[in-house]
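User: Hi! I'm working on a homework problem where we have to compare a predicted structure to a textbook description. Could you give me the structure for the chain below?
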Amino acid sequence: MLRQAREFGPVVLIPLAWIVVIATHLGVIAGDTLFVAHVVMSVLLAVFVVTGRAEMRTGTLRVWWRIIAVGLVVTLLGAIGFRIGTGRRPLQALALFGWMILPSVGFVDIARRKTEPAWVYLGAAVVSLLGAVVYAGGFLGAPPSVSIVGLVLVGLGQTVAIADAAFRY
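Assistant: Happy to help. Predicted structure tokens:
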């Protein structure tokens, strides 16, 4: 059962995480709730890192284990950002942009190793990274809706890739 949770859990958790981020940006979810989400994600990531290590020692799985391990650190720093006064924004931004970018490294690695369906993973990486750029445009004076579009793109790219990986492999 733990193996199935590790294999198929991300198909639900990844889009859910981006929905929570979008809802927070829209003011539907409070910052305290997002702090709790960071703590829960940290626990889930830690369990995944510990229980998946033995099976994720080579190839693409090793790349993904490293992404998840770095993501755990990034998520913990984001959680700390909710509890400190000075320096909170950089830590929160690190967590957000970290999770926008880190999975794209894995998507490119999968595309590089697989001849079919490489386009799914390259497309997911491009859409996710484009979403990060669009989101960053929100800091340059663009309307708030631009940031939401960026988050939707990131969530869409990541969800498509993880769903394909879970159900194809």
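For your comparison, note the following. Residues 2-168 form one domain. The CA atoms of residues 64 and 106 lie 6 Å apart. Good luck with the assignment!
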